[in-house]
Each structure stands twice: as C-alpha cells, then as structure tokens.
Amino acid sequence: MAVTLNTSIHWTSASADDLLMLENLQPNILKEHTRDCSTLLFLKFAQPDEGKAFLRSLVPHLKSTIDHLQEIRAFKSTKVPGTPYVGVGLTATGYAALAIDNVPSDAAFQHGMQGNADLHDPDVATWDVPFRNPAQLHGVIIIGDSKLAPMSKKLAQIQALITAHPGVTVLGSQDGRALHNSNGDGIEHFGYVDGRSQPLFFDEDITAQRLLTDGAQVWNPAFALQQAIVSDPAAPEPDKHFGSYFIFRKLEQNVKRFKEHELTFANTLGLDDKERAGAMLLGRFEDGTPVTAQFADGNHNPVPNNFNYGSDAEGSKCPFLGHIRKTNPRGSGGFGQSEEAERAHLMPRRGLTYGLRTDNPNDGNIQNKPEKDVGLLFMAFNSNIGNQFEFTQVSWANNPKFPEVVAGPFPGVDPVIGQLPKGTPRATVHCPVEWGNPDTVKTVASVPQAVTMKGGAYFFMPSLAFFHAL
Questions:
Q1: Residues forming beta bridges with residue 455, ordered by sequence position
Q2: Which residues lie closer than 8 Å to 56 by C-beta, 6 or more apart?
Q3: Rounded alpha-carbon distances, angstroms, from residue 305 to 193, 291, 320, 346, 351
Q4: CA distances from 163 to 169, 174, 201, 354, 384 (A)
C-alpha cells in the first residue's frame, strides 16, 4: 500500500504507510501549528560537513506531524499546551552548499524567487539583506509557539547550536507576532480577519468544519494531500518520505496610506457606510463577514467560509477586484478552467504579522497608523510552486484582466498584493454604490500600492528521515 496522495486522510486511523509519512513529515504543512510568537533565522553554510553536522544536531528539537496532532488531541482533554514548533527549510543553493545531489525537482524552486520577473517584485537591491544574494542564503529555521516564553527558550537552544557550529552563519532574523481583534480572530495590519479559507487535509478537521462552524455545503474545504506534499528525493526511500516547498515573502504594509484611500474610496462612491468601502477592497468586512454574503458586518462567529460567488456573477456585491476574490475565485474565475483546475492553484497559508503597534488597528483613527515597519510574513506550502504561488501572484493578483468578465471594464490588480511592472500606473476600478445593484457601478481611482515586498525565497522543508540520514 502506498502513501495516500489523491485524497484527504483520517489520521487517527491512518494506514501503515500514511502513518510512516506523518511520523516523518514536518508539522505546520498539513495542519497549522500555533506560532503566534515566532522568530525566523536565515542561514548560510560555509562548508558541507559542518552544515550537515548542524542539521543533525537539530533532530532532538524537531517533531513530526503525528506528534503535533497528538499534542492537539491531548490539549483538548488535559489543557496541557504542546511543545514549540521548529521547522527547517533549505534553498536550492543550500542543497548545493551541503553537497547533496538529490535536489527537489520543482523548476521554480531551482530558479529561485528572483528568477521570475513576472512577479514584478521590487529591485533586489531594495530587499532586506538576507535575501539580496540567493547564492548565500542556504536555509531557514522557524521557531514558534503560542506564548513568548517557551518560544524564546527554544530559540536560545537553537542559537546555542549555531554557536557550536562555527561554519553556520545567521544572515538575518525576523520576528513575527500575531494580531487579534476583540473576537480573538487573527487579523492583519489593515485590521481585517486573515488566514481563513484554508485547505483541509485531515478528515477529522473537515468533519469539524462541516458540523461545528458554518458548514461545507457551498464551499468544499477538503483537499488531497498532493496539494501540499511531494516526495523527498534526498531521503531514504523517497516514496515513503515527504516534504513541501515553503514560500516566504516579507510584505511591508503602509497602513496609513491604505486607510486614507479607504476613506477616499467611500467618499468618491458616496457611501455613508465607510466600512463597506473597505470590505469591497478586501472582500470581507473587518470581522470576516464576506461582502458577497451581506451588505454589513456582524457575521463573525464563526468567521464564515461556506460561500461562493454564485449569487454575485456581476460583481455587484463583492467587486471582481476584491482581494479574497482575486486570490480564491471559488469557481467564478476565468481562463476557461474547471473549478477542479482552479482549486489546484490554492495552497495552505501560514502567514503571521510582524511589527509592534501602539494603536488599535480598528480604532477608526487614520493619523496614528504606521507607514512602515509593520506587515505580513507571507508563508505558504506548495507541491508545485509554478502552479500554486506563482500562478496565484502572476495570473490572478497581478493580472488586471482577472477574473474575466462577460462585459464591462477589467477588474484591475489585486488592491492588496497586486504588483505591476515598475512605473506602470494602476487603472481605475469599478464598484457598486448600492450593494447588489449592477446599475449603480461607478468608476473610481485605483488603490495606491500600500504593500511592498521586502524580500523572500523558496525553500524545501525535508522529511525528518532526511535529517536522520545526514
């Protein structure tokens, strides 16, 4: 019996091969690991033997997906918290620095993030230092926990191992700290609920979403494991051990600029309801209510995910440019793709905010909002970078002609993460004044770019079997 890849699985009754895979798969890939307090360390290996020795020294600090799942189950009955998360990834140049020949085969991974000009990222010279020279960036370690104290303790242990291996250099580090609203939901710095609509890979989670939240009759959250994991070519018995391609991008947010445009946007449309103006740009109200579902917020417990755009074919509730519609069309996209093909572009996202705030993101005050040094650490797992992250960024977010519309003007780029070639102006956008009434659509100025990519890289998160075999 082979590892199950073409469907979700029931982890509590997994087959022998599936269990072996889960015992050697890093956590946070198939199921999110709590890491509200995190630090990422970006590494360089001076020579192969020292780098391998360091990675072997990490083994006692690494846990598996099955360990993580069992910790979650135990917490529900005992309330004893789980252990900190330690994740390890290698770049293509990292494999070369370690003199490992069996490099993961994804073409985008081997070319690197800087290898795709269609991403329209800023000049590499403006990126944060660790990302400017991909030949020098070899690995990443993520240390995270729901609380700062255990995360800091584990971080100190990892830093001690680095010190003990002088051939390993920290090129830079990045702290992440989660933001939450008054309902306890995770939010990003613009103040909107973030991280919803995640692919689910375990039947236990799929059942829980169907029975304990808003259901799964309209939007199916179940995805096959092959959406996130691939064979680990450098592990013993690669057909039994798996890893995932890890995407990291640091996205700085100019919160003041975005909030100023929300107000301008509302005034231009003549909206008394200022909150709906922002909801049209993001696709959700601040509390997570989908703007395609209702014209006001107040549907946040739980944050809805069981919806599509079947009742909004003309974009008169949630405009086609809405961020969550651009990055997950839920069957209403274009390119003549089937819904199944469209779903293949989606990926499990594990983003985390960074930067300290002294204000309340949702206090309604624009003048006290930060213009730099805060943002989102975009993190996601892929089985095919070109068909998932790069397709989403290039063909959806950056593409002013997506989603395709039967008639009328193009939607424009994603107002949050969309990027155009340097010097290219953003076109005007088109939004309804009256919710659900396509006859009231007005043309307004596009959202000025308020998110700047500050650096990133592609990594592969190997199996635990890989580390044991070094």
A1: 250
A2: 467, 470
A3: 12, 12, 18, 15, 18
A4: 9, 18, 38, 26, 35
Residue 428, amino acid: T
Q: For residue 405, give both structure tokens.
A: 């519309």
| Three-class SS state of 470 | coil
Q: How far apart are CA 325 and CA 433, in angstroms?
A: 19
8 A C-beta contact, residue 427 and residue 410: yes
Measured CA to CA, the distance from residue 328 to residue 303 in angstroms comes to 16
**Amino acid in position 409:** P
Reported as type and span, the H/E element at residue 305 is: none
What are 354's strand-pairing partners?
375
Read off the tokens for 357.
Answer: 């705030």
CB 303 within 8 A of CB 262: no
- What is the full per-residue pLDDT of the chain (470 aa) written as tens digits? 799 999 999 999 999 999 999 999 999 999 999 999 999 999 999 999 999 999 999 999 999 999 999 999 999 999 999 999 999 999 999 999 999 999 999 999 999 999 899 999 999 999 999 999 999 999 999 999 999 999 999 999 999 999 999 999 999 999 999 999 988 889 999 999 998 889 999 999 999 999 988 888 999 999 999 999 999 999 999 999 999 999 999 999 999 999 999 999 999 999 887 889 899 999 999 999 999 988 888 877 788 899 999 999 888 999 999 999 999 999 887 667 788 999 999 999 999 999 999 898 889 899 999 999 999 999 999 999 999 999 999 999 999 989 876 566 788 999 999 999 998 999 888 899 999 998 998 988 888 999 999 999 999 999 999 999 99
**b/e burial code for range 282-300 (CB count within 10 A of at least 16 → b):** bbbbbbbbbbbbbeebebb
